[in-house]
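Loading example: each entry is read as two labelled lines plus one structure line.
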Amino acid sequence: MTYVYAIADRPDEPLPSQSGLHDEALAKVICRDVVAVVSAFDGWRLSKAEDELWRHEEVIEALMSDRAVLPMRFGTLLPSRQRVGDLLCEAYGALVKDIERVRGHVEIGMRFLTASEGRSEDDPSVASSCRLPPRGTRPGSVYLWAKVARDRELQDRRRAKLSLVRAAYERLASHANASRLDDEPDDRQETSAAFLVSRDRIVSFREVVDEVANAHPELALLCTGPWPPYSFVNAGERATSGSDDCHAA
Amino acid sequence: MQRDATLARRQKVIHAPTDQALLDRFAGPSAEVERQSPQRIVADPKSVERDLARLVLSVVELLRKLLERQAVRRVENGTLSEEEIERLGETLLKLEARMGELKATFGLGDQELTLDLGPLRDLVSGCD
């Protein structure tokens, strides 16, 4: 198996001196003027342990120092280097477009929480709202209507939070070249967004983040970066995830 | 919390709340909760009964919350008569009470009955 870190331009440039996951040597798979940076995957298990995630990240960031990079998600595997090469050539046109789109840009990540947001069913502020007058006086009805009231309260809170988040997001998005808002997170984590920002505008974007934070004291923002543009890779992810014989851990 | 500390060490934090309690909430489930999650049964004779109970009760709790969620939706949709609401509510009430007894019997807390269902987690958290 072959582990794929990223797809980049400038295939003739030497690879970073560092090693990849499990200290495997980095290698190139080239198709015309596009290169996939890979390492061998000899059946060791990907654990998503923090140091492995950072090793993946470090390889990509090292590549970004002197070329435009389409980062692959942690755990992108293909059966062989030959297959990597085939996919590179098949998706070549789209990859080149993607590389041009992210050239000179980084991703800034943002996560949003509301100050009053509860994460537990034991959140007392939600529990209190369930003391709405129930319909009916029998125990089963009281119980179920209390659950309905609580559900409505949580939905109202979620709508109010999304409204706040969208206002902040729009302001930030106007200072980015591209952006994505994930307002339906698939777990109980908070709403998040990603912004594609030119490297030379990171400082000014940071100032906008501070302005937005000051303008929305009811929101807590955690802004991180700069990252490789994981959220803005289209062709590279399609090329690898569209293959029947690859998987992401 | 460890994740945020690593982000700070690697100079990846651009903006973060100054309130430590808020910052902690960004860290997600604590390591303690993750440690307690019943990912596997430890084959230790001293704890196997409790571990097995924890796993079984986790599944039962998941089903109970799903049932409750479905009941709330049916009430919201107005598809239940008052009598049906009472019967369903009473059933769920007794189920919750029984679960409370079982949790107390085995000394289990709510956080120990958390199943990591990956992308399905929202389905469950929506039942809270």
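Chain A touches chain B at residues 50, 54, 108, 111, 113, 115, 117, 119-122, 136, 138-145, 147-148, 151, 154, 185-190, 206, 209-210, 213, 220-225, 227 (CB under 8 Å).
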